[in-house]
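pls design
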């Protein structure tokens, strides 16, 4: 009879993911209270997440390593939000595009402290900078797929270079969130979603956006 015991590697990876999620929530809470990431000690982060200092160092080399892993978690949430559009892009529906942008803004708002910390560290931390670039490239790849699919279907402008356009739009959304959300209340988010969706739709689609 084959053993049903899970492989140690699988258990370790599951444990890592649980700890990363708890540390992400802890970092969001502590930074939302006004602390900067550089001010947060490993002891304080571990205590807030309900883990030991020893457990922290089992999975992370230092705070920089933690931040890179947290960024991966955050971008997983951002990508999940974007799938509200990407997964049904073949419907060519403005409402789907708006739902995707609205979800991205909500995810950015929820994890704003971590993304702000990543932006702050990127200029002088090579690892943070490369991680941020790789994660945004992954988002741009998703948008590229949408653009190429729309071009094949005749709904998106055929003259647009798909990859370059996707990169430009991805960075537009990222910079808009990074520069504006920290300084505006949640009531601003719906307006930003409307504006970004209008810009993206107008740039890509042959069909005009619906009148609001």
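designed seq:
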């Amino acid at each position: 009879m084959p053993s049903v015991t899970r492989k140690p590697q699988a258990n370790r990876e599951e444990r890592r993911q649980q700890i990363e999620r708890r540390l992400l929530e802890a970092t969001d809470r502590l930074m939302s209270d006004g602390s900067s990431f550089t001010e947060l000690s490993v002891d304080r982060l571990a205590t807030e997440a309900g883990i030991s200092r020893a457990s922290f160092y089992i999975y992370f080399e230092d705070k920089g390593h933690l931040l890179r892993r947290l960024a991966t978690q955050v971008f997983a949430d951002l990508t999940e939000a974007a799938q509200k559009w990407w997964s049904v892009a073949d419907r060519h529906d403005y409402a789907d595009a708006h739902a995707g942008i609205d979800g991205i803004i909500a995810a950015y708002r929820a994890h704003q402290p971590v993304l702000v910390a990543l932006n702050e560290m990127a200029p002088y931390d090579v690892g943070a900078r490369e991680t941020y670039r790789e994660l945004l490239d992954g988002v741009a790849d998703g948008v590229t797929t949408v653009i190429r699919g729309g071009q094949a279907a005749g709904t998106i402008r055929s003259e647009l270079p798909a990859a370059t356009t996707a990169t430009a739009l991805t960075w537009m959304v990222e910079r808009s969130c990074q520069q504006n959300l920290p300084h505006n209340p949640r009531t601003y988010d719906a307006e930003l979603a409307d504006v970004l969706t209008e810009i993206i739709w107008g740039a890509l689609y042959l069909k005009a956006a619906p009148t609001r």
